Amino acid sequence: MTDNLTLAVFGAGGKTGSLLLERAVRKGHRVRGLEHHLPEQADRIAGVDYMRCDVLEDDLTDPIKGCDAVISTLGVSFAPSTAIDPPPLYSEGTRRIVEAMGQADVDRIAVISAAFVDHQPSVPSWFQLTVVPALTNILDQIRIMERMLEAERGVRWTAVRPGWLIDLPYSGAAQAQTRKLPSDCFRCRHADLAGFLLDTIESGTWIDDKPAVGKPEADEDEGVLALREELENMFSSASR
């Protein structure tokens, strides 16, 4: 693809979305940041054209029209309420995005999926037996999204499957392979995920594929105590 692209980024206000916007603008791309609740002016990234957009309700054709590609960083936060009854952002939201892409004559999309839709040999058994079952309803939505993309004709898609996300700086050392996380990879940095999503669009790689992305981290970031603390923080934030 050309060096300077026009990109529509859904979920632009989230952690991965914001990092992707920063990276894309820094590399000279024209970026439309699409988000249900727009960030305050002070929190906006210079050079991004922000647009308010509800993927489950609004007409998505105009925000996508004229773009070279779409990147969806939409995701469902892990909290008790969303674990029980997740909003259909992955399934219905992605379906509506792809439908609008057809109307806007855009054929390239990269989305965030999850490594845990498949059994992952590199993931600790305690995580497989505790956290993954709690994610069942969210993962079912992601599986619907992946099957929908696989069935699409005329759309070049990439479903990026990160490991358990962690908020650490960009490393540039993320590893990827089809469907399964590379050996010893359990976690994935938000910044590395953002970089990988942008790279697959820029390079035209991983077309119609499901790269699982992660990197080995320090023991203290991969153990039970670290995960418990992160989950407690998530649930605490969700209850406020």
Secondary structure layout:
Layout: E1 6-10, H1 15-26, E2 30-35, E3 48-52, H2 61-64, E4 69-72, H3 80-84, H4 89-104, E5 108-112, H5 125-134, H6 136-151, E6 156-162, E7 164-166, E8 175-178, E9 187-189, H7 190-203, E10 211-214, H8 219-222, H9 224-239
Parallel strand pairs: 1-2, 1-4, 2-3, 4-5, 5-6, 6-10, 7-9
Antiparallel strand pairs: 8-10
**CATH fold group:** Rossmann fold
Across the major sheet, the strand order is 3-2-1-4-5-6-10-8
| Poorly predicted tracts of residues | none
The number of strands is 10
* CATH superfamily caption: NAD(P)-binding Rossmann-like Domain
Radius of gyration: 17 Å
Instruction: Give the SSE order as H and E letters.
Output: EHEEHEHHEHHEEEEHEHH
Strand content: 15-25%
Number of domains: 1
Distance between the termini: 44 Å
Query: Helix content range of the residues, please?
Result: 40-55%
Mean pLDDT: 93
CATH C-level category: Alpha Beta
Number of separate helices:
9
Inertia-based shape: globular
Structural class comes to: alpha/beta
CATH architecture: 3-Layer(aba) Sandwich
- Major sheet: size, sense and barrel closure? 8 strands, mixed
